[in-house]
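Internal ticket #5521
Category: modeling
Description: The requester needs a full-assembly model to guide mutagenesis choices. All entity lines are attached below as received. Residue total reported by intake: 981.
Assigned to: D.W.
Attached entities:
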Amino acid sequence: MTAVLGGRPAGVSTLHFAMDDADGTDSRQRLVVVGNGMAGARVVEEVLERGGGEQFAITVFGEEPHGNYNRIMLSHVLAGEEHEDDIVLNSHDWYADQGVTLRAGVRVDRIDTHAKIVYAADGTTTAYDQLVLATGSRSFIPPMTGLYTADEQLLPGVFGFRTIDDTRAMLAAAAEHERVVVVGGGLLGLEAARALQGHGLQVEVVHAGTHLMNQQLDPDGGAILKNSVEALGIVVHLATRTTEAIGPDRVRGVVLADGRAVDADMLVIAAGIRPVTEVALLSGLEVERGIVVDDQLRTDDPDVYAVGECAQHRGELYGLVAPVWEQARVLADLLTGADPDAEYHGSRTATKLKVAGVDVATMGVNRPERDTDEFLVISEPRRGVHLSVVVRDDKLVGATLLGDTRKVAFLTQAFDRGTPLPAERIRLLVDLSDGAAEVGVAEMPGDSQVCNCNGVTKQALVDTVKAGTTSVGGCMDATRAGKGCGSCKLLVKQVVEWAADGDVQEDPAESWYVPGIPLPKPELIAAIRDQQLRSVSAVFTALAPGGEEDAKSKMGLTSLLRLVWGAEYEQENDAKFINDRVHGNIQRDGTFSVVPQMKGGVTTPAQLRKIADVAEKYEVPMVKVTGGQRIDLLGVRKEDLPAMWADLGMPSGYAYGKSFRTVKTCVGTDFCRFGLGDSTQLGIDLETRFQGIESPAKIKMAVVGCPRNCAEAYVKDVGVVAVGNGKWEVYVGGAAGATIRKGDLLATVDSPAAVMELSGRFIQYYRENANWLERTYDFVPRVGLDHIKAVLLEGSEEVLADLDAGLQRSIDAYTDPWGQDGAQPATPGQFRTALPLVDLPMVPVR
Amino acid sequence: MIATHSDAPGAPTSAPPKAGTPATEVTDGAAAGGAGVPHVVGRVDDVPPGEGRAFVAGDVQVAVFRLRDGSLHATQAACPHSGGPLADGQTDATVLVCPLHLYAFRWSDGTCTSTAPPVRLFPVSDQDGALVVTV
């Protein structure tokens, strides 16, 4: 068991190729990294990624003889789930290929920070210009009688759990022995216990705390975890210490603090870790619990830095990998000068893992700390589920999920970014809107489809991440996942974040309104107003990098300019999507659909007769009643559109635009014996007022005359429900498409006029603040219903007047596009065919 | 009864196809290659700045685009992904975006920016106002 992990086939090479100690002709600075664990190696990787190979001759000291390996995976190796070769991150060859000198198996004793020399245990000295300490941590071995032999070695059969050598030794011992005691009921101890049990050993865990995983879980959660662990057949002793290891030649058992003796032929110590700080101490650097560093990860010597588990930043020690990655990035930015002002401000630690077969995710605090903290707990001991969240000042400051981590993606985002929380806190932990069983991202099989529109599987996304694309937007571009209906975007994001293991690049474009202009919506609107930009080409010239136009940004900009300028917008046909150029919805064969306006879904025999005549005259292949209570003429050739519109003599129903679409209604009080309000007339009035208004995404409305909801108002972008006594409820943010969501009750008002006013204000607020293509069902939860209520119901007169005026500007700019372009084409050949191109489709007339 | 465009004679639609007029018949001619034959397909002014229009060059359907910078580009008329009418797409200086599923194709070599097969490109030029496509 002496093979070198990630070594060269012939074993360790002590050759190194840097020129510095050969002839002194190397003009590069000397960067020395002490520690070849996950932190040290990551710093080297990040430095090289920034072109640091040109600037620095890099030497890495590693106490272990191995290349760099993924320490997190050791419990999987112990469990036999991974081969040790598969956890190698950087082999010896990698260092050689990168021109990095690896001094593997060489311990560093001390540093002379004045002479800037590293003294190693093998007697060599190495000069440096910049030094990084990444010495990591080691197992904490609690005091125990009889633990050491006369020559200061651990008694045979006693193991720490920190390195691949520890793991190999345990695997060898597990094959020969039967009973193991694991000291420590934290994460590492439970992982070791479960792994060794898998090798057929009888396992007992001794934990000094009063409940398992007391670092992460509250007592109730710990109790439920104990049940789950014991159900696996592992014996758990709580609130007691191991005081003595029974020897003498090798471990025979342990004695607990209460005097009980437990037989064992293996003893695994996983009672926590301690930072390795001896080198720093001997070198005269400031050390408290860890090596003290500032926001630039500098120790009290200006040329010596420390990162990873050995570093103490703002009083915190970090033992998780994500903060270490962050530190490595900041340090590489500083060392290479990529960002001389880079700073590390600490990490909010969140982690998700599987402990002894149980899913656990924790972030922030695990119990309330102040009187005003909100604390919500859902405990299902029988199912082994214990969920809790801590909310402070309307922000998530902590969450613990045990046994059910389905909500972890949402909670992590709320925790990291402080996104608004649902007013009903229970929604943080439970999905109330639909009962569909969600599967955690990690558990999804690779071939399960993430994006149904474009047929992208989880595996395809994972492969894209592994190939080096680690931004969510980049993965979406490469695979087209999330580029169809968009309802899977959150899941895509979760898969990418999971595949990148928390190492996701922030996508600056995520906050931009359109990909081609690097500005969020409010700043973009301000720039458009300030610089009086009235056409899409003017926006590109003034605001795009290099003045370059971007095809995929044009549609969103056209919509925005119409919002800002109303009738004063300078129209450019090429900046519009084909649907908006020819005022019909393009179909899969390149034909279009024609949907005449039919306000509130109310029609007349004369109108129906006219539609029937037109459908026959133009041989319309399919006539269909739409979900929006209108009639759709499908399969119309582009060149026939103007003539059809003229024959119909009806205005456009806007069934094609990112705009207000239609208002569905029920028959209300006119005929229905249950109707409480005249929903039909109100629907017609709403559609008359809002017709053709462009918006970030389509807006569908409905008005129903009673809560029986025959026109589905509860699941519309804006839904209105008559509730009797002249009162109307206004719901917003509902959906019944790819996403199903019941709308949130915005307000109950007492007249149709008040419905018109409030829904108009909501629409305008949505138009001004939503991202491009963001439907109200995403917008309302993102902004928060409480915030929307505050603005629309309790906002200042001034704000409300601005909303009313903005909407009125667009209402005044309305012209029926069919009447307008039908008479006089906007550009030459506007309705010339681009068809027929392929024999598609053979739509039958039934 | 089954009614489709191809068996709807006498419908009040545009005139039957002839070379040099907008395309109304499906032909996906031989792949570009060899010397190529130049065809006058129409006037440059038939294509408004920033937009695209479909033409027939010989027996090949092409989509011709006139970008806002004045440059001309010609591609096969049907999107290689699922036959979308590329002439109805949107453009910028780098790519053409199909209107059906928003696949984008580079002017430089016809390749797709994501996962669709590439489009064929054809040489196109402005000869005294005439639009000449070589297929």
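Resolution: model delivered.
Comment from assignee: Chain B is about 0% helix and 30% strand.
Ticket closed.
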